[in-house]
Amino acid sequence: MDVQICEIYDSSYLNIISALFQDLDLPQLIDRLVPVDPQCQTRTSDAVKLIILDILSGRQALVHLERWAHEIDLSKLIRPGLKPSWFNDDALARHLDRLYEADIHKVISTCLIHIYRKEGLPLQAFHADTTDKTVYGAYESVSSEALRITHGYNRHHRWQKQIGFGLIGNEDGIPFYGDVHDGNLPDKTWNPEVLSRVHEQPKQAKIEDEWIYVADSAAMTKDTLAQTKAANAFLITRGPSSLRIVKAALAEADVQPDPAWSNSFSLAEKNGAAYRVWETASTYEGHPVRLIVVESSALDQRKGKTLEKERVKEAELLREEQARWERHPFSCREDAEQALASLKASLRPRFHRVKAAVEEIVRPKKRRGRPKKGVEPEVETLYLLRLDVEFHQQAWEQARRKASRFVLVTTVPKEWKGRTMDAREILKLYKGQISVEMNFSFLKDPFFTDEIYVKKPERVAVLGYLFLLALAIYRVFQRRVRQFITPERPLKGAGGRKLTRPTGQAIFQLFEYVKVVLLKLPDGRIQRALGKPLTYEQRRILQGLGMDESIYV
Questions:
Q1: 492 close to 509: Cβ distance less than 8 angstroms
Q2: pLDDT of residue 141
Q3: PANTHER family per the record (predicted)?
Q4: More confident call, 182 vs 377
Q5: What is the mean pLDDT of residues 76-80?
Q6: Strand locations in 259-328, DSSP E?
Q7: Using one digit for the tens of pLDDT, what is the confidence trace for 257-275?
Q8: Which listed residue, of 36, 164, 300, 385, carries a Cα 20 to 30 Å from 11's Cα?
Q9: Is 52 exposed, middle or buried (0-12, 13-18, 19+ CB in 10 A)?
């Protein structure tokens, strides 16, 4: 009797995610938080793991998960003895409901804290922000406490039905706190509310130390400052340009001599923007704050375009004004002088120098018909307003420099935990805000988080929280790989590209064509084998993660 091929699975990187899920002890933790129902053939951790794998493999609707379970190596990826039919949409819906009843926010928060402990991640500085996600359909619930899925304007000012995501994470983008909230909750409300809840997270992680909360300009409120202090934290945020203390800091920075500013420095290794900083102090709503004026060589593109449009428009208006006054001379100097005074008062160009003066001209007086021979033509004296327009290069450069300035507001002391927290260090921490913004690209990527096809707001909330858990696992995976990839030993990615800080998706691509073959041996036993040997880069990644090909076979 020959060896028979029973099944061929496109396993790709799913086995790595499955092994990582196990290594983080998440199945045991989830089953402890949501106890196993003896009447159910599957555990909640089984359903969660399947949904996480589905999210990270290119998400499809839950109604199709049973069919997808037939196409994957279910026994290896989840646990032996499971049948695909046990993951029909009714069974998954019941698991979502049980997660909601167990307090899904608490379940995911506990998982995130556990991940931080397991990975030994520092709990010192966190970046916070919110985003929205479009949803479709009519969602009905009998509970007044359910997630409110409402119409509102998204970040691009488009009217849509949406839910909100709030995230707090470290510089690697690993969430420490996450929530799924009402679609219309403003950031100015979310920040103080979340600070009062996040305060409990470090306690659960047995961290009673001070920490730093980094957020965007919506955090610059009296309530947020008060809650930051109550949470044993310090705040770093961008000061809104409309704030009085911010305007004062910018005005004061304008008159500072160059020596008062710091030397130019860069935060990136290469091709990074150059910065100069100048610092002052003030108080806001009774809280002492440090104000750091930052000048960047990389002028914000939107501000640059706005300035250029303003300059072009101003030049056109001045040309039109010049032509208008030259077409309409005055008959008396007094009228011309009055018009000149009015013109000087109305003209306030930003990027041009305008010199206006009354010019006297004498010209023949126009008469009807041909002038008589030998008669001297009559002359008239007229008064023109002449405008001499010149581009003001210095004013233009000053406007660009001002546009490239922004103000950071912080309550972090200059010395903290034995570290010097000067203006440069504060700016560096604030620039780490991109880590949470990159997470939003994950949450909005149709590959990971396509449309949410569930009926109840409670299930929408649970699925949203599972997106956050999938994001945490994805970021842990990316961080672990980056720890052993160096500029000296880069990773050879798709197309032969050298990767020194590979993204999770770039690493996924290297495992895209890994196949597992199920063989039936002559004695009836089933054995797994790789379709073809792993490449050097694949083995290197697995070795760096503390794994080997046994995760497949």
A1: no
A2: 63
A3: PTHR34614, TRANSPOSASE IS4-LIKE DOMAIN-CONTAINING PROTEIN
A4: 182
A5: 92
A6: 265-266, 274-284, 287-296
A7: 989 999 999 887 667 788 9
A8: 36
A9: buried
Q: Which two tokens stand for residue 4?
A: 């028979």
Distance CA 452, CA 216 (A): 28
Query: Structure tokens of 385?
Result: 């307003």
H and E: helices and strands count for the chain: 19, 19
Strand, helix or coil for residue 253: helix
User: What's 286's DSSP letter?
Assistant: T
Q: Strand 265-266 to strand 4-10: parallel, antiparallel, or no bridges (unpaired)?
A: unpaired
Q: Which two tokens stand for residue 124?
A: 């010192």
Extents of the domains making up the chain:
4-102+484-551, 241-365+376-410
pLDDT, average across residues 388-402:
84
Residue 538 confidence (pLDDT): 93
Average pLDDT in the chain:
86
Give DSSP secondary structure letters for 398-448.
Answer: HHHHHHTEEEEEE---SEETTEE--HHHHHHHHHTTHHHHHHHHHHH-TTT
Specify the 3-state DSSP secondary structure of 93: helix
**Mean of the pLDDT values across residues 120-147?**
76
Task: Specify the 3-state DSSP secondary structure of 262.
Answer: coil
Show contacts of 75-83: CB within 8 Å, 24+ apart.
Answer: 76/11, 76/15, 76/18, 76/516, 76/528, 76/552, 77/14, 77/15, 77/18, 77/49, 77/50, 77/53, 78/18, 78/46, 78/49, 78/50, 79/46, 82/42, 82/46, 83/41
pLDDT tens digit string along 24-48?
Answer: 999 999 999 998 877 888 999 999 9
* Three-class DSSP category at 155: coil
pLDDT higher than threshold 70 for residue 300: no
Find, among 533, 435, 436, 537, the residue nearest to 484 by Cα. Answer: 537
Check pLDDT > 60 for residue 1.
no
Q: How many residues does the chain have?
A: 553
Side chain identity, residue 359: E
Per DSSP, 79 falls in state -
* Rounded Cα gap, residues 100 and 93, in angstroms: 11
Give the residue carrying structure tokens 């500013």: 261
Which one-letter DSSP state was computed for residue 298? S
Q: How far apart are CA 83 and CA 91, in angstroms?
A: 12
Instruction: Give the type of residue at 349.
Output: P
Task: Take residue 68 and report the two structure tokens written for it.
Answer: 């997808």
**In the chain, what is the greatest distance between 2 CA atoms, to the nearest angstrom?**
133
Per-residue tokens: 105: 């926010």
Cα gap 530→428, rounded to integer Å: 46
Record the tokens describing residue 228, joined without a space.
Answer: 């930051």
Read off the tokens for 272.
């990074």
* This prediction's pTM: 0.82
Does residue 546 surpass a pLDDT of 70? yes
Summarize pLDDT for 442-500 with one digit per residue, the tens. Answer: 777 666 555 556 678 888 889 889 999 999 999 999 999 999 998 889 998 877 889 89
Amino acid of residue 375: V
